[in-house]
Structures
1.
Amino acid sequence: HAGQAQAAPQAGIACVDCHTDTVNAFRGTPHADSAAGCEGCHGDSKAHIAAGGGKGTMKNFKSLSASEASAACLTCHDKGGQKHWTSSVHDSRNVSCITCHNPHPKGKAPKALLAKPQFELCTTCHLQKKAALMRSSHMPMREGKMACTSCHNPHGTPYPKQLLQVSVNQNCYSCHAEKRGPFLWEHAPVRENCLNCHDAHGTVNDYLLKVKQPMLCIQCHNGFAGGGMGNAHSVRDRYAANQSCMNCHPTIHGSTHPRGNTFKR
Amino acid sequence: QDGKDPQTTGGVTVGAQTGSGLKDSSKLQEYETVPQGVVLWDVDLSWKNASRYFLSFEGSKLGLDDQSASFQTGQKGNWKLNLSLDQNLRWLSNTAETLYNQSSPGVFNLPDGMRASLQRIWSPASTDPKAPADSNDARFWSVRDYMNGAQPVELKYIRKTGRAALDFSAIKDLIFTVSYQRETRNGTQPLAFTAGPGIDEVANPVQFTTQDSRVEVNYNKKLYFVNGVFAYNVFTNDVPYTTVDNPVRLNNTDNFWTATTVNNTSANATARLWNAPDNKATSFDFSTGVKLPSHHKLTFTASTTRMTMDRTLIPQATNPNLGLTTTGFTLTPEYPAINAKLGQTLYMINFSGDPSTRFGYSVFYRSFDITNDKPAYIFHSTVNSDGGASYSAAGITSTEDMGGYKTGQFKAEGHVTLVPGVKVGVNAGQLKSTFEDRMYMDVKDNTVGVTLDANLRWAMFHGGYTNLSRQPGAIDPDEPAEGTTGGPLDIHADMKDVAKQDGKIYNAALTLTPLDKTALTFSVQGVNSDFPDVSIGLRKSTMKNVGLDFVYAFTDKFSVNAAYVYETYHMDTNLWYGANGTIANPVATNTIDQYFNKTDDKVDTYKVGFRWDLLPGRADLSTDYDYSKGRSDSAFTINPGGQLGGDMYYPTSTTTVNFPAGGPYLNYPQVFNATTIWKTRFNYHLDKNLTLSLMYWRQVFDHADWAYDTLGLYMLPGSALYATTPGAVANIYPQLDPSANRALFLNAGVPNYNANIFRASISYRF
């Protein structure tokens, strides 16, 4: 790419007379550093110029299918974070690069040329995630301290739900390393998937719990042998208040105490 | 600045903010600082020259708890150095207070005088001449007095993440990235515990450090790529143990456990809680891919992670409680330390392609395996909760296979473009999970699904439907049988409940754009799951939501938007939750849905706003009003009678049903929490460099929670629910007095708030 910086101001010089606003917007983007200029994406301009403009003489992305539009971008962007784009969920569901990115933004070029701020962009389709993040217990996304891409790569990964890490738990451990263990006493549902108990996008319960305690725990631990959840674990008594089951079983994510088999220590 | 060399750009935004209600609740500032006074909101500076060297700096809310800053420099295409600092806060409660003194991190002491007085509250107060006399309110009055003497304590921690990363290209197409990240978390968080019959809670120290070092190599060619990442991650906790001064003696006789009152104020017993242990993880990830002719592509990914934890055991002799009853105890631990290891392996192969403009496909197989390599431990002698002595002749065994499992997933997907812009896909797959310590040796999830995606000029549609059938395999002969210790009805219940499942998963979003100036989106999504093999636990769960989003542009200058989403979350459990004191020996019985509990969560979310370019390029006004109200309601329906047998385990098989008259027997009072966020912004561009911004921000939090707010009925003298008979089982209730309870439970509430915030700022860009 050496020497391309000098070419940058010239990018689109043949196009600017007609497409003034578009080219000027383009010149403020990282793509302007490319020597290919407008033709890098839209193809050879000779026929277009010879015809005095008009549709059909150059590649117009609005008339391309999703996969055709993405193919133009993948000419360069098929590495790094985009290397798993082909056959990713978005690719196979008719979402293209220009669904989310705008190569000709108005004003200051946003990061990654996103068509909208990231949260607004993703929740255009994922409405239920927008609603979840409005709940009282939520990830700090509406405060701007996290983004969808903190956990997901929308361009595809080899992992479930386009996660950045190999599993849900591994994703969570990247911030919550204290939950990683391993522990002397493992709580199997915890080790298997954090989402067994939590909904990472937001819930109406404390600590992103899917269901309020103690109801969450008794989905599995209900009426166990020897008297079960009767007097010892009664509704409305001290065991149900505040953090409920975790009043007495605080190490529910795993314990390293020799007597920690019931997660009390 | 086209044509200038070097190019320098930047900006700064400063302003002032004031308002009311900002300090009323930690909830407003749970994740972000909302300061008052003059604030440097943002600053940025970037520089680059024709030789492609660059420098940039960005800072936000510098000096505040949630500040962030980053600095980058390098030569584009050759190397880049990135330094960053990012802070997150987590404010859990601004009302907490505690009776304890903390002599050093994690060591909580209670003054003897306070301890003795607290004991008298629970040693039947009506007969204790030393107790402060108030026979009209025998249970709580003293604790309320102590609340006045409690010390405020902060429940808040701050996460600081510093990162340094260097990217450089050694040779063409080969890029190295070396990075180091150090993250600290410091502060406190609530920790509840029991050390005998009572429950207590302390503001436990958080002194965590996580260090992550990694090296990444990327080699990219036109037809193939190779990527490798090696990472070493270390977590350390500077407060491995928390010791609490004699919490047992804060309680009197326990009405259920029938323990005797502990009046000995001179004994020096402590409770020891083991905090999150230090741990390490080493991982290596590898990916490679090759492009084949006709748009076929083959990728392979492998990942291996080794997680380890070593912890030195504390000699039991260090627990002074053993001085009371050393008989039968081995005071030297059998193991000076414990060691746990987990090995995690993933590999995946994916073959995909778009051989024609009409057809595409992908086929993948993914294997994920967690093996527990921890050796088995048998603890013949231990200290029960580190609070009182106990001895187990049989020993407590930690087996070596706990928590291990593996999955293998195969999935094939194909899609056809029927007409331009309309794509139909079908998929089928199987996820097989094999467990080391579950009742069933394996469980298979078979899925079949269809998708429809359409991008038309006036409409866009994305929809999908998947049918899930989960089938359990053979019963593991090494696992305890149902109804025995360790079996499905034990606290370590094997997950028979979720071993068989029929699920239906669907989603659809339709966006209509009949006119350039309007867009209307309908969306629906849901999961219906039945668990037909339930003996205990979860029987059915249903989640669904419907949404509507609307945008309309009256003119180029003015547009409005609105949205509404309604969500429900429902769960049925095929057993009951016993009512305290209603039955002497709770019996789990039936079956034909006569005993179940249910949970219903519902959320309404509204959004409305507008954008108005008052003076294009000069002035704009916008507003966004968001409101979300969630509520959680749980009910327990218990009918008398019932039938023996069925698919429900009978713990004793002899006791008859003795529930009182039918239900719904108990309802948790509804919990709700409502959040309103309303922001109105006005921007006026004084010139091309200067912008004046005004913002009015109203945020309201309104909630009620039975765990805190509705227990008073059980505490108020005169209430039919108020228990007054000492020794009765129902007298457990009074310990939940909102005052008394919160004193011992840190009073860690989250108050409602109604904040009105005004901000004025000016931005200068060059």
2.
Amino acid sequence: MLNALSGNLESYLDLLSVRQKLISSNVANADTPGYKTQDVDFQTEFQSMMQGGQAHATEVAGLKVNNDGNNVSLDREARLLSENALRFSAVSQLLRGQIRNMKSAIDEGKNG
Amino acid sequence: MSLFSALSVSASGMAAQRTRAELITENLANAETTRTPEGGPYRRKDVVFQTGSAGSPFAEAMNSAMDGTGGVAVSEILVDQRDPEQRYMPGHPDAGANGYVAYPRINPAEEMVDLMSASNGYQANVASMSAVKDMLQRSIDLLR
């Protein structure tokens, strides 16, 4: 995008939206028999996305499995939902600052 | 474009939970129904959920990055096959020769618990959808 930093911010936002979709999918399947909670390993996937890779979803280990084989914990998803929204809001503010800087550089050039 | 498909995933969850709530209300409304078009008393219905596509052709076309993760769909509606409950009511027009009437085998407590679960599931999907909407709005605001 604009420079290396905003490129990284963009991959971060991309990874957050991938994670958001997995959270939505976990919530939607909270009553589906046999469904297993999906998530991304944030750090590893972010490293690979900065090198131009794709994010991969994995099953989350260590959650309590219900009688119907489903292991979605709505409390866990609610926590991730708010965490994800906060991260997204923080990073989009940073990216907005980058764009504003670029815009002001363009405008100054126009006036001068 | 994951964010837009996340909206359809939540929508599929809401639709599935609503179908479930509709069937539960139908069960409660028909808890004492002794006549149905198929003959015999009403039989309890329940849903079976399965993971499925979020059901939006637009989302499917845009959804190249994360194939295979999707929403939820109602795969079938189960009709209760247990024998109906027999109540001794000789004066009832639907009573058999021995004076017993076949009533649906419906436990209101069980239905109410299922209804609460469906309603909680619906709310969870609404919360996730509004979080996605906020994120989309923030992305749009980047260019303001």
